[in-house]
Amino acid sequence: MIWELFLEPFAQFGFMRRAMLGCVAIAVGATPVGVFLMLRRMSLTGDAMAHAILPGAAVGFLISGLSLGAMTIGGLVAGMLVALASGFVSRMTALKEDASLAAFYLISLALGVLIVSTRGSNVDLMHVLFGTVLALDNAALILLCSIASLSILVLAILFRPLVLECADPQFLRSVSRLSAVTHLTFLCLVVANLVAGFHALGTLMAVGIMILPAAGARFWTDSIGGLLTLAMGIAILSSFSGLLLSYHYSLPSGPAIILVAGILYAISLIIGPVGGLIAQNRPRKRTAS
Amino acid sequence: MTALAFRNLTLGYDSLPAVKELDTQITEGSLTAIVGPNGAGKSTLLKGVTGVLSPIEGRIDLGGFHRDEIAYLPQQSDIDRSFPITVTDLVAMGLWREIGSFGWLTRAQRTRIEEAIAAVGLTGLGKRAIGSLSGGQMQRALFARLLLQDAQLVLLDEPFTAIDARTMADLLQVIRRWHEEGRTVVAVLHDYETVKTHFPQTLMLARELVDHGPTATVMTSENQMRARLMCEACEATPHICGKSAA
Q: Distance (Å, rounded) from C-alpha A70 to C-alpha A72?
């Protein structure tokens, strides 16, 4: 029973094993980035940038069809351009960064869908929007694992300035000149991981595996190490469960993974001991002074 | 000897000056309060000294100090208290000059962190998340970080805001000790009584310099009135004085 339900799909089918490996790579690389996005109150920025990579990937698609390399390069370029352009607009005009990001991502999404639709079919459009985690080939897996490895390495190097940049930016600027470098490198990591997530989960779902596990983990721990570990665990569990649900009930795999992450987030939101609904509204015991 | 010299200094945000044409100097080993109305440019001036802000015009001479030798206490409102970091981790950042962005903490450094936490009266709270601390405890933790920085020039931005009287007395004692050790301490303060009682030197600012010297001669009602009027005049003509200030 356990074998049939949980293990047989992976033992029997290579595409399931590749999908799981791809999801683990995304969980290890993208989820820690998602934790820092959340802690920097940039969750919606991540969402906007996920949409922003679409026209770049679409131009890659226009030139080379569903080519991994062209769509990756296009996505990276478009993501970085939108991140920098929205920062430029918020600095040079009266518009705040959230509004300029929203404007850029709406334009990007419309442009991306338009470009894909002019050349490709509805199937191609669905591929770009929701990904094809069950169709990851070796080249895609190598790309996902490389981005995950690079992310972990860069985060390990930048961990301390990144923590200070979030918690006490004025202090970081007073002791180090790394503040701007840290911010820019972090934006590059966000874009790279969104592009990785895009190949597996599509432009609309990629940010889900970044943010939902991070948001869920926040209700269980108040240490940064615990948060990073737990978020990765939730992402891997969501991927495993989502893939099995998709296999057994013939559901689209990307949305199934994100929905499981959503369910785990909802459970954490209710019963999580660190600021969850129940913990927050439990009558406090009076302590003798 | 001069610790800090402001040479015709203009500082601000987006080219709008918050401090204008400041020309004065702070003596090494002095204990100086920076006072002035809200929006007078006090915090902006400290950000200029730490290098967070670059001068629009003029310059800041740090005497014999290097920027790394400055310890800076930001306002509590600049710190994200919801960030999941413990008191020990926050205090450990005071060793940045020694450990940098990715150096390991040695056993001796861990002991120094514990000693700094104990010195500000937070023994036993090292593993607590900073979000669970009271305002006074948080300020004590930030002072522990300053202790570890062991700097010759200490800049404090509103160190006594929203803290209890006992914490304030304890922190004032730490400041007095720094002064006795010959360090230069500059603090932005709002409470004039604290300034008159504990700070021998005062620099009064209203975007421009109002007065600077011994506290008794600077903290006069005439100077306070002048500072208020100067700031109000600037608010009425922001295109001339600049409308953004800390």
A: 5
